[in-house]
Specification:
Length: about 500
């Protein structure tokens, strides 16, 4: 049985930990059952943005006449759009090749199952050969997969998920009709993409509103823009049964409040009803790893599971399904495992994100409802795109229904509790508030943990240095929305060549 200092399961953010471990001279193994690079590269945020941007350009072109530019009716070169997207996904092949050539690491293109707290059974993807390996420490970065609800007849009729869309069910051209089950981030992004590409899109959402993670008024705003762009929305509705009809697909939808049922005819059914943990595929129970009722691996602020030599980062711990959160957790783990610095603790009080639908949504911190629920005395500030010269130059007006806005949720001591943007460049507009929230993070920030504050106060010199304004520290301590142009500026810090 081969034994390793560290075994990593999953090649998304797990690759960051692998690189740090190899730099320390540790013997490592990495186990990956799919394409290398993780969800974000192969079936998530990166390839989807290769489709979002062309969709954005189409919508911009349609509105260009507002500012006196006539661009005509946009057309889509689906083959070229697709080629650019697959080029990004296929970067995974280069990652795999580089890993196989890298000294100090064994690459297992296989499924992995725990057989105990220190052992893993790996079954190679090609053939039926199985091997057992052991390790001193494990990092689980195996992610999540699409949750498929129990819909009568769905398996027989066929459907797609984000995994199969960016796989063997990628269409040769945009569908004429697309029905999306689920109105969260993935569902609304794909609704925007295919609506702009000319598909007749229908969204079926169990809840009372789209993108339920957002402010109610932002959800309403996005839904209004969807409807105006020709997207049909069925709120408070669940998919009951699917069947085939004259070469098309039919979905029966039931209103959860009235019980009324409707039939929707479509060419394809896209399931985006959320995600589920991959912990069951790993047999984490065999290793004695504690999980919650939904199968998410329970971790503490140091990314430790109930087995102190096993760590879990990224989607599989169920905290946030964002690559920048997974990267943040990987950085914390790298610090704690491979450096002599004090242990870092993860803090999720101000996680930023963006939803790349149309209109775009940016989010950091608490919503107004959440802030009031926590007992804060809340003060609200709003400003609309049409209220500033740059917004007017872009064609925004108070007379147009797509006049987006920013909403700031503040506390009575002028503390930033949350910031929410809906409209063009929302991801860029919201990111600076993440930096502001993290200013003085390790000192007297309300977002710092008690442990962080005590750590700084016990080291007065560090404590005082944290308070110096104008340093790079708030950016270095922040999560940067991925993928976004914010990474262009934030990651420039890593290129600074400090003199010894």
């Amino acid at each position: 049985m081969k034994h390793y200092d560290l075994i990593i399961i999953g090649s998304g953010s797990g690759l960051m930990v692998l690189e740090a471990a190899l730099a320390k001279g540790l013997s490592c193994a990495i186990v990956e059952r799919s394409k290398f690079g993780g969800t974000c590269l192969t079936k998530g945020c990166i390839p989807s943005k290769m489709l979002v941007y062309p969709a954005d350009l189409i919508r911009d072109a349609e509105q260009a006449s507002r500012i006196g530019v006539q661009l005509g009716t946009p057309s889509v070169d689906w083959e070229r759009v697709s080629t650019r997207m697959w080029k990004q996904i296929n970067y995974s092949k280069r990652i795999a090749e580089n890993l196989h050539e890298m000294p100090g690491v064994d690459v297992y293109e296989a499924t992995g199952e725990f057989t105990g707290p220190n052992t893993l059974s790996v079954k190679y993807l090609e053939g039926s050969e199985t091997e057992e390996i052991s390790g001193d420490r494990f990092v689980i970065a195996a992610g999540a997969r699409s949750f498929v609800p129990n819909i009568e007849g769905l398996a027989e009729v066929g459907y797609i998920t984000s995994e199969t869309f960016f796989g063997d069910k990628f269409p040769e051209k945009p569908w004429e009709r697309l029905l999306i089950v689920g109105g969260g981030a993935i569902g609304t992004e794909f609704a925007h993409i295919f609506s702009a590409f000319g598909s007749k899109v229908t969204v079926v959402e169990m809840g009372s509103r789209l993108i339920a993670t957002e402010e109610e008024e932002i959800s309403e705003f996005v839904q209004q823009q969807f409807v105006e762009s020709g997207i049909d929305i069925f709120n408070d509705s669940r998919a009951v049964a699917a069947s085939s009809e004259n070469g098309s697909k039919k979905l029966v939808v039931e209103n959860t409040k009235t019980g009324e049922r409707q039939e929707i005819i479509t060419d394809e059914i896209f399931i985006s009803s959320g995600v589920r943990s991959n912990s069951d595929l790993l047999r984490c129970d065999a290793a004695g790893i504690d999980m919650d009722a939904r199968g998410w691996i329970i971790t503490n602020e140091h990314m430790e599971t109930s087995q102190k030599h096993i760590y879990a980062i990224g989607d599989i711990n169920g905290k946030y399904q964002f690559r920048h959160t997974a990267n943040y957790e990987a950085e914390i783990l790298i610090n704690n495992l491979f450096t002599d610095r004090e242990k870092r603790s993860a803090c999720y009080d101000a996680v930023p994100w963006a939803i790349y639908t149309r209109p775009q949504v940016g989010h950091v911190g608490l919503t107004e409802r959440q802030a009031r629920g926590k007992g804060y005395r809340v003060f609200i500030g709003r400003n609309y795109y049409s209220d500033v010269a740059a917004g007017i130059a872009m064609g925004h007006s108070q007379h147009y229904s797509d006049n987006g806005f920013v909403k700031i949720v503040a506390g009575e001591d002028k503390r930033i509790l949350g910031v929410h943007v809906v409209g063009p460049h929302a991801a860029i507009l919201v990111q600076p508030f993440e930096y502001l929230i993290n200013t003085g993070f390790k000192c007297d920030s309300p977002y710092a943990s008690d442990a962080d504050r005590e750590w700084c106060k016990a080291r007065q010199a560090i404590y005082e240095s944290c308070r110096i304004p104008g340093t790079l520290r708030p950016i270095m301590d922040s999560m940067v929305i991925h993928p976004s142009l914010n990474e262009l500026t934030a990651w420039a810090i890593e290129e600074i060549e400090w003199e010894e």
